[in-house]
Amino acid sequence: MTFDDLLKRAASLARPGRRAVLGISGSPGAGKTTLAEHVVRELNGDGPPWVTHVPMDGFHLADVELDRLGRRDRKGAPDTFDAAGYAALLRRLHEESEETVYAPGFERVLEQPIAGAIPVPPSTGLVVTEGNYLLLETGAWARVRRHLDEVWFCEIDEQERIRRLVARHEEFGKDHDTAVAWVLGTDQYNADMVATTRDRADLVVPGSALPTPYEPSTA
């Protein structure tokens, strides 16, 4: 399996007159966002954009609400997202393809969701969405899978996944010790949960097929 194989498979999901939604899942730090961004960039190429990236992260609950609920120290866990709202958006993306649908984004520096940040215009034939819990079967998360045409699961070497995750937390402001503690605590608990959903994916994407720093595809 190569990245070009993944591009061809993603492109094949789109059908005339019907918008497709591809989900990319995996544990924190597994490369979901990088894969989604590369797929969207390559398929759009230099022509009119027809693929849109809609991350699950826009459905993080705001810190003020996490404080009210007493969950801020577990930010990133399944119950710190608006799972029902995410499932409803995926349904709209399938059913309301004749008008622009607005999705929330997520500001990494602020670590806060931003409403209406991502427009999905009628010209979008394929939406690529990614997040940890696309295959979770508990609570409102169980509604998500029915609105995804396929779900891919990213899987990389565990030590590399942890290294990347620590580096990401440091990039966005945590000192090294705090980043390591978060990764081996909250993030690892979530990663172990996500790993149990692997067998529900349509495709497991190995680390060898995941893109690294951006390079144009030969496909």
Output the keywords.
alpha/beta; five-stranded parallel β-sheet; Rossmann fold; 7 strands; 18% strand; globular; 6 helices; 219 residues; two-stranded antiparallel ribbon; disordered C terminus; single chain; 35% helix
Description:
- With 219 residues, the protein is of the alpha/beta class.
- It has one domain: P-loop containing nucleotide triphosphate hydrolases (Rossmann fold, 3-Layer(aba) Sandwich), CATH 3.40.50.300.
- The chain contains 6 helices and 7 strands.
- The chain has a 5-stranded parallel beta sheet with strand order 2-5-1-6-7, with helices on both faces. The protein has a two-stranded antiparallel ribbon with strand order 3-4.
- α5 (158-171) crosses α6.
- Mean of all residue-level pLDDT scores: 89
Write down the secondary-structure element order: HEHEHHEEEEHHE
Beta percentage is: 15-25%
Shape: globular
Low-confidence stretches: 213-219
Major β-sheet profile: 5 strands, parallel
Across the major sheet, the strand order is 2-5-1-6-7
